[in-house]
């Protein structure tokens, strides 16, 4: 008993310490310890909690990611509507708004609060007894979706707030906070690049990425994507709690919420206007995107008097910064080949000055976008540039000064760089070059091949690879294994020792297992995990090369899309030749074929609902180890549906189709 009391104390102290450092890092952006030290504290807590599972509480810092993937979101009604704001674009409109505020309130001495208009999505957080119990999206303003498990993974959202802290901030124990959920520019850039590398569709802006992230059914994905939350409203039973908005912001900050520090309490429109102008210039330097300034009447009593029109309050207004844009002529379209072979149409423009720089190129995204815009060569187009995003064509302009162009934009049949026939897989927007040796794809392909999780050739980074490509020393990944010391010494900044290091690294990579080589080939849709399954299933590169679409689909997690991509890859003679050379160089082409059980061979399972004794991954592994296959959707081909509690539509469908529905006990028995 004494031991457990001891553990309880230790756990409580550790949690407090971790929460404090989370607050310093994620709310104040002012860490005091290194990531390493922080991770150590977390591990210590995890260890203690593992030894004393009864002491785990939902607000423990270890419990941000928890629960199993869900099948959908529950709709929740808001305590009071989540409104939007009316927009203005000029100083004049702003003055008009002030005039209305004066008229309706019958007073002229009105205080305003200026805040940044953060370009994310609004979110409501419910706290009961200081504990986060609910996170809900705005939805249609009246009802939103319950995204609590996802929101719990956002580190700047407190999971619980101690009573004395709330008291000190003057906030009641049960309350609602509203604010903006967003993805910082840096995270957006990094994640999008990663998606691009993996052949996934990219997001146009951080706001869309945020929305896609918070609505992930599997909250562990949300956790990896580093969202941030800024609080700007405090409600109790749907009503504003403090008598002044300025107080609300301070109180939220005192309670440990992240509140944007770029805010100002002002007495006049002059001051509002100067705040607006000041931020128009500085907005680029912020780590997140803003699209304007929000001006709010400070006094709650005045807010109530002013009330609402339709969907927006009369007591607040958004001043939107104009998208930096201009009109210019579309001279031509060229097709750029990215690292994954994706062809992107790039508009070549008559040079136009936008926001201090001359723009000559803008993206047209893809063929669907070209169709949507209805754009032709010779058209005048509106071009916009925002933040550090690439300029884009936003619409075709047509009036008497801007006649329409007439030349259709051709979609290339061949890769503009290497001449290989381009491919558009059914159901996809993008055209791609599938030639692994295409020079345009080379840099990305080689960097992927040499990177840490793949062939782990330390030192083979962008500057070295660029030089190797420029000198013609490397035209594909197999050429890496023909490099000599003389080749390396001919490059900039290479001495005997550094050249030898690289050669040693290259030699070492030959000891890495088959699945790494498969992953390194950069076959579309074949990530680390799939490569591992492929290696285990086929046991050799040769067997994989000769597998048919049907055979490939016997592999865990491989569906028609991945199978076709693999067959397409090996169907290209240049790719075959490349693989052959890798084999000759001595890379691992044989692996251990994983002997899987046969009890469930040929049987397909679908898991649904929450299982009591297994996580999804554990259950899946059990079935797969016994030779079975787990898929995501119920069809006539499904043999068993394993249903846990709260099973939803999949269970309904299984019943409809008359499939065998079993529980986890029966699953255990079947798997032996
Ligand atoms: S106040 C009724 N403050 O802008 C009050 N909104 O266009 C409505 N937004 O849906 C919200 N920054 O998602 C407020 N500092 C800020 C904001 C902000 C961004 C968003 C919010 C809202 C949208 C309205």
Helix content: 25-40%
Beta content? 15-25%
**Head-to-tail CA distance between termini:** 39 Å
Count of domain modules: 6
CATH architecture of the largest domain: 2-Layer Sandwich
Shape: globular
Mean pLDDT: 91
In the CATH hierarchy, the third-tier topology of the largest domain is known as D-amino Acid Aminotransferase, Chain A, domain 1
Largest sheet descriptor: 5 strands, mixed
* Contiguous runs where pLDDT drops below 50 for at least 5 residues: none
Briefly characterize the structure.
With 672 residues, the chain is of the alpha+beta class.
Keywords:
Helix Hairpins, 25 helices, OB fold (Dihydrolipoamide Acetyltransferase, E2P), alpha+beta, 25 strands, D-amino Acid Aminotransferase, Chain A, domain 1, 672 residues, five-stranded antiparallel beta sheet, five-stranded mixed beta sheet, binds 2-(butylsulfanyl)adenosine
Description:
With 672 residues, the protein is of the alpha+beta class. It has 6 domains: 2-63, Helix Hairpins (Orthogonal Bundle); 87-320, DNA ligase/mRNA capping enzyme (D-amino Acid Aminotransferase, Chain A, domain 1), CATH 3.30.470; 324-423, OB fold (Dihydrolipoamide Acetyltransferase, E2P); 439-511, 5' to 3' exonuclease, C-terminal subdomain (DNA polymerase, domain 1); 514-584, DNA polymerase, domain 1, CATH 1.10.150.20; 604-671, BRCT domain (Rossmann fold), CATH 3.40.50.10190. It has 25 helices and 25 strands. The strands form 7 sheets. A 5-stranded mixed beta sheet has the order 2-14-11-3-10. Strand 16 (343-354) and strand 17 (357-363) form a beta hairpin. Helix 1 (2-27) packs antiparallel against helix 2 (35-51), helix 13 (439-450) packs antiparallel against helix 14 (462-470) and helix 23 packs parallel to helix 25 (664-671). The longest helix is centred in the N-terminal third of the chain and has 26 residues, at 2-27. The protein is globular. The chain starts with a helix and ends with a helix. The relative contact order is 0.07. The mean pLDDT is 91.
């Amino acid at each position: 008993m004494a031991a457990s009391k001891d553990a309880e104390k230790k756990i409580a102290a550790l949690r407090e310490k971790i929460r404090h450092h989370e607050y310093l890092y994620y709310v104040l952006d002012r860490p005091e310890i290194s990531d390493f030290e922080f991770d150590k504290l977390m591990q210590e807590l995890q260890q203690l909690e593992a030894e004393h599972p009864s002491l785990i509480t939902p607000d423990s810092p270890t419990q941000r990611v928890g629960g199993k993937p869900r099948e959908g979101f529950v709709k929740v009604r808001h305590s009071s509507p989540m409104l939007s704001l009316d927009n203005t674009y000029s100083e004049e409109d702003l003055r008009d708004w002030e005039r209305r505020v004066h008229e309706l309130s019958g007073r002229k001495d009105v205080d305003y609060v200026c805040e940044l208009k953060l370009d994310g999505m609004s979110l409501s957080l419910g706290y009961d007894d200081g504990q986060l119990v609910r996170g809900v999206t705005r939805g249609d303003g009246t009802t939103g979706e319950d995204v609590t498990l996802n929101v719990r993974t956002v580190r700047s959202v407190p999971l619980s707030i101690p009573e004395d802290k709330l008291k000190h901030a003057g906030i009641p124990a049960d309350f609602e906070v509203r604010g903006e959920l967003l993805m910082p520019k840096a995270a957006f850039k990094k994640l999008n690049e990663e998606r691009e590398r993996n052949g996934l569709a990219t997001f146009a802006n951080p706001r869309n990425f945020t929305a896609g992230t918070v609505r992930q059914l599997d909250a562990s994905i949300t956790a990896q994507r580093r969202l941030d939350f800024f609080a700007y409203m405090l409600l109790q039973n749907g009503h504003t709690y403090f008598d002044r908005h300025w107080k609300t912001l301070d109180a939220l900050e005192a309670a440990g919420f992240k509140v944007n520090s770029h805010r100002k309490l002002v007495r006049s429109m002059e001051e509002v206007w100067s705040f607006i102008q000041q931020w128009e210039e500085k907005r680029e330097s912020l780590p997140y995107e803003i699209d304007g300034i929000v001006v709010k009447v400070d006094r709650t009593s005045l807010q109530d008097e002013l009330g609402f029109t339709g969907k927006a309050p009369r007591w607040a207004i958004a001043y939107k910064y104009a998208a930096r844009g201009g009109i210019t002529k579309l001279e031509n379209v060229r097709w750029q080949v990215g690292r994954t072979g994706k062809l992107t149409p790039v508009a070549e423009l008559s040079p136009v000055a936008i926001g201090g720089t001359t723009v000559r190129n803008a993206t047209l995204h893809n063929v669907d976008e070209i169709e949507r815009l209805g754009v032709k060569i010779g058209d005048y187009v509106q071009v916009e540039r925002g933040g550090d995003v690439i300029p884009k064509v936003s619409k075709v302009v047509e009036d008497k000064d801007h006649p329409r162009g007439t030349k259709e934009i051709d979609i290339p049949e061949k890769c503009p760089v290497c001449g290989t026939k381009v491919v558009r897989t059914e159901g996809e927007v993008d055209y791609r070059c599938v030639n692994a040796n295409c020079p345009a794809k080379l840099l990305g392909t080689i960097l992927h091949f040499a990177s840490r999780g793949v062939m782990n050739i330390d030192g083979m980074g962008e500057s070295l690879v660029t030089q190797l490509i420029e000198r013609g020393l490397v035209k594909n990944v197999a050429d890496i294994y023909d490099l000599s010391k003389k080749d390396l010494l001919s490059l900039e900044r290479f001495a005997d020792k550094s050249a030898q290091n690289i050669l040693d690294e290259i030699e070492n990579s030959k000891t890495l297992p088959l699945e790494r080589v498969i992953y390194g080939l950069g076959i579309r849709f074949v990530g680390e995990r799939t490569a591992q399954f492929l290696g285990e299933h086929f046991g050799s590169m040769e067997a994989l090369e000769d597998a048919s679409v049907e055979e490939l689909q016997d592999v865990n997690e491989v569906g028609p899309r991945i199978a076709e991509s693999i067959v397409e890859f090996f169907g290209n003679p240049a790719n075959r030749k490349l693989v052959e050379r890798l084999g000759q160089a001595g890379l691992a082409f044989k692996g251990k074929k994983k002997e899987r059980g046969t009890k469930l061979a040929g049987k397909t399972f679908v898991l649904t609902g929450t299982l009591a004794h297994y996580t999804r991954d554990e259950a899946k592994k059990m079935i797969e180890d016994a030779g079975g296959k787990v898929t995501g959707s119920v069809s006539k081909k499904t043999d068993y549906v394993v249903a846990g509690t709260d099973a939803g539509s999949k269970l309904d469908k299984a019943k409809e189709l008359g499939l065998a529905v079993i529980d986890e006990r029966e699953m255990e028995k079947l798997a032996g």
